[in-house]
Amino acid sequence: MSDAWYVAEPEGDISGPYAFQDLLRAAAARLFAANAQVWHVDFGEWQPLARHVASISHAPPSSVPPREVMKPTVQPKAPKPTGPERAAKPPPLTGPKPKVAAKDRAQLEALLRQADAKKAVSDALLTQNAQTSTRRLAWVAKRLAARYIDVMSLGLFGAGAWWAATEGAKGPESQTLPELWMLLFMACAVWFVVESLLVGLFGTTPGKYLLGLRIRDERNDAPGLARAFGRSFHLYARGLAFGLLFLTPFAIFIAGAQTLNKGEAPWDRGLIVDEQGASVQWQVIAFLLVLLWIAATEGWWLELASVLVH
Questions:
Q1: What pLDDT, in 10s, does the model give residues 176-235?
Q2: CA nearest 22: which of 116, 92, 98?
Q3: Are 269 and 280 contacting, i.e. CB atoms less than 8 angstroms apart?
Q4: Staple partner for 186: which of 89, 120, 159, 228, CB 3.0–4.6 Å?
Q5: For residues 87 and 81, what is the distance between their CA atoms, to the nearest angstrom?
């Protein structure tokens, strides 16, 4: 079957012949009018182009360039073939005489190259945006994991010591064991104090150090106690909702979304968070996260703090 396709514009311009793949690419790039007509040797008459390419959104590239353009010629109408032989070129269009010259091969190839270049730029931007979003998501997850490690280790141990020094001092007859939510609430308060001290003096915490994070100011030094306390309080209020059980998950989600969108946490306030390679593999970190949760739910920190206090 012949692969010669001709296109007629509404003004009367006829261009072709085109290979079918080139026709699809040009139509996908919207190089033809929406109401253009197309002719093929198997049709015998002009048909709407949209009928053949309406379902094509991304035509595959073709290795064969479009062939020379056939300029319209005025010919008398020929009767439709009755035998097996059919016309190899399209019949003339009925209507007004063409006003402009048909698209030549160089023009069509240039337009196709422009369309391919725009698509390549668009694909590159999409890939770059996806990579940026992935890096930001990993960065936010790393910061959340570091905070989780600090709260579930230093915070819960401090909360256990806090309880042991108050309720535990009343004796086994009158003391009451705290609920997990109460211990977590106390752990967030302890974490606020411990985080402020460690970040202010050293620029890091055990969780941040484990995951390769360090906070510094513009002079590449630790932020100092005043600035660190201000940052930690902002995080404690906005990022943890003061450790309140029913508000903390929503606060973490909202703050994480803002950090992911802007690429900077709301409480950093000009401070720089350096990211280095984690000191251990992620499998070990994941195991540590699970272990800390088990220690919290089973009361290991509370028992350890009680033993050390008494």
A1: 667 888 889 999 999 999 999 999 999 999 999 988 899 999 899 999 999 999 999 999
A2: 116
A3: no
A4: 159
A5: 8
Q: In what order do the strands lie in the sheet with 5-8?
A: 14-18, 5-8, 37-40, 47-48
CA distances, 299 to each of 129, 157, 294 (Å): 44, 10, 8
For the chain, the domains span 5-103, 132-309
Rounded Cα distance, 24 and 158, in Å: 69
- Are residues 19 and 73 in contact, defined by beta-carbon separation less than 8 angstroms? no
pLDDT-based confidence at residue 60 (cuts at 50, 70, 90): very low
Instruction: Answer for the pair 147, 251: CB distance below 8 angstroms, yes or no.
Output: no
Distance CA 196, CA 23 (A): 67
Q: Is 159 helix (H, G, I), strand (E, B) or coil?
A: helix
What is the amino acid identity at position 307? V
Q: Where are the alpha helices (DSSP H) in 1-104?
A: 20-28, 50-53
Query: Side chain identity at 194, as an amino acid letter?
Result: V
How many residues belong to the chain?
Answer: 310
- Cis status, amide bond into 65, omega within 30 of 0: no
CA distance 32 to 43: 20
Nearest alpha-carbon partner for 23 in 37, 43, 44, 11 = 37
Detail the DSSP E strand segments found in the chain.
5-8, 14-18, 37-40, 47-48, 213-216, 272-275
Residue 203 exposed, middle or buried by CB count within 10 Å (0-12, 13-18, 19+): buried
Amino acid found at 147: R
d(CA 267, CA 270): 9
